[in-house]
Specification:
Helix content: 25-40%
Strand content: 15-25%
CATH architecture of the largest domain: 3-Layer(aba) Sandwich
Oligomer: single chain
CATH class of the largest domain: Alpha Beta
Number of domains: 2
Number of strands: 24
Distance between the termini: 44 Å
Shape: globular
CATH superfamily of the largest domain: Aldehyde Dehydrogenase, Chain A, domain 1
Length: 526
């Protein structure tokens, strides 16, 4: 999916092998370049200029080793947000009138720049949030592919301008067109700091909107890299603006600004649902919120248990379970429960834990001390109310003491326990025995969330029933690469039902860009 003369190495979330020597050599060079840039000062981006924040600066350290400073960053406030909104509003009329084909040309150029810079951007992300190299490189590639795929869907829809029928009068010409709303706010999370910003920003901008973007204060460096790629691709001043700072100031100002016509938020259910209920004031405004998941895997007695254990392990513990799609609960038929646990524990205890910059480690740290505390609280409850099959410790030996490292944890608990309901964002999965597929489906659906779900069964009837009855937006069957994780642009649509999403339309799919536009009917009489 690139115009480079030499084919690039493509890494996705379904990549299982880690033995490509060329890739590792390229990544090591990226790590060197990234490491040389640690400790720098970074500014906001408003109206095409890199500017200081009005509220001073803040420091970010890596969760890998808190002795290492990633950099200092400009701290914005409500005044900076209004400057960014004003810049976006001034830029929007000219950007809206720019032919959509020209908008796509610029955005595709940005996607190519992201791919060309994949190794450095991936290393920056690894330092910033603790992803291993395949996870970080996969996310950078996903960010580029999101832009490419959304541009493709807009092209296939001819800019969302379609002729309609008439009632037989040849002098009457009717069309339906989609028009941009104006200015979108995009508030992105720490766990996918590039993909979950590039997707909504790219879609909003190619639709003719302009954007004010606030990254997580935990992962601002990746946001800066993304904005730099957009600027270097030739986006006009004011089309994408960038303000760093806390949610209770910068985020709140974006949510309440009269100059914001729509908003995209990815984060917790509590914050997202509160935003969804409060964002519209004078009239409804688009509010696209993705609010996490408590994602089940079902293992029937007719499953390939080795395949199931591998898929559960990868989805439960990839990036330390800090994915809205993580497989955090498992319902397994009682007849095969013990064997599944044996295989799952065996695979879990082979996971290498350490500094994810190094090739040898698959699992790095969780994001901060609060995540460690959540994990340890869950482990304590599991020890009291059930059984810890594997893991559970806070790792503090040697260099690990300077980071936020915990063991991936498999526990057995009664199905009604709160750890089957509450999203933890930690490497922790709970397993419960069930007596039938009917019981497993009922338990799986008994949740506020409905993002992803998976099943392992060699019985086509069981699979068909799962696909028909499960209440979730992203479904996987017999997937070794991940029981509930691993969606890719144009391959799997990714969006939640119930408390996991607000629109019923998914990202990574052909329906996404249209959510940033509103329909207008044109009837013209000669």
């Amino acid at each position: 999916m690139t115009t480079d003369a030499k084919p690039r190495i493509k890494i996705t979330y379904a990549t299982l092998r880690n033995d490509n020597e060329e890739l590792h050599a390229l990544y090591e060079a990226g790590v060197q370049a990234s490491t040389a840039g640690l400790g720098r000062h970074h500014r906001n981006f408003i109206d095409g200029l890199w500017v200081e924040g009005s509220a001073g600066t803040f420091e970010v350290r890596t969760p890998i080793d808190t002795d290492i400073v990633l950099g200092t960053f400009a701290r914005g406030d409500a005044g900076d947000v209004e400057q960014a909104v004003d810049a976006a509003r001034r830029a929007q009329p000219a950007w809206r009138r720019t032919p959509w084909q020209d908008r796509l040309t610029i955005l595709r150029r940005a996607a190519e720049l992201i791919s060309e810079r994949q190794m450095v951007y991936g290393a920056d992300m690894a330092w910033e949030v603790g992803k291993n190299r395949l996870e970080a490189l996969g996310e950078v590639e996903e960010a580029a592919d999101l832009i490419r795929y959304y541009a493709q869907t807009m092209e296939h829809n001819e800019g969302y301008d379609h002729p309609m029928d008439n009632l037989g009068d040849a002098s009457v010409h009717t069309r339906t067109v989609l028009r941009p709303h104006g200015v979108f706010a995009v508030i992105s999370p720490f766990n996918f700091p590039m993909a979950l910003a590039a997707g909504p920003i790219g879609a909003a901008v190619m639709a003719g909107n302009t954007v004010v973007f606030k990254p997580s204060s935990t992962s601002p460096l990746t946001g800066i890299n993304l904005v730099q790629a957009f600027a270097d691709a030739g986006l006009p001043a004011g089309v994408v603006n960038f303000v760093m700072g806390p949610g209770d100031t910068v985020g709140e100002a974006l949510q309440t600004s009269r100059g914001i016509d729509g908003i995209v938020f990815t984060g917790s259910y509590d914050v997202g649902y509160r935003l969804y209920k409060s964002f519209s004031t004078l009239w409804p405004r688009p509010c696209i919120v993705e609010m996490g998941g408590k994602n089940p895997a079902i293992v029937t007695r007719k499953a390939d248990l080795e395949e199931a254990a591998e898929g559960i392990m990868r989805s439960a513990f990839g990036f330390g379970g800090q994915k809205c799609s993580a497989n955090s609960r498992v319902y397994v038929d009682a007849q095969v429960h013990d064997e599944l646990i044996r295989l799952l524990v065996e695979k879990t205890e082979k996971i290498s834990i350490g500094n994810p910059i190094s090739r040898e480690y698959w699992l790095g740290p969780v994001i901060d001390a609060k995540a460690v505390a959540r994990h340890q609280q869950a482990v304590a409850e599991a020890r009291q109310d059930g059984r810890v099959f594997s893991g559970g410790e806070h790792l503090t030996d040697g260099d690990l003491a300077r980071g936020f490292y915990v063991e991936p944890t498999v526990v057995g608990l009664p199905a009604g326990h709160r750890l089957f309901q509450d999203e933890l964002f930690a490497p922790f999965t709970a397993v419960s025995k069930v007596g039938s597929l009917s019981e497993a489906l009922a338990l799986a659906n008994d949740s506020t969330y409905g993002l992803t779900a998976g099943i392992y069964s060699e019985d086509p009837g069981e699979v068909e029933r799962f696909l028909d009855e499960i209440e979730a937006g992203v479904l996987y069957v017999n997937r070794r690469a991940g029981a509930t994780t691993g969606a890719w642009p144009g391959v799997q649509a990714f969006g939640g039902w119930k408390g996991s999403g607000s629109t019923g339309k998914a990202g990574l799919s052909m329906y996404y860009v249209a959510q940033f536009m509103r329909e207008q009917s044109h009837t013209v009489v000669d």
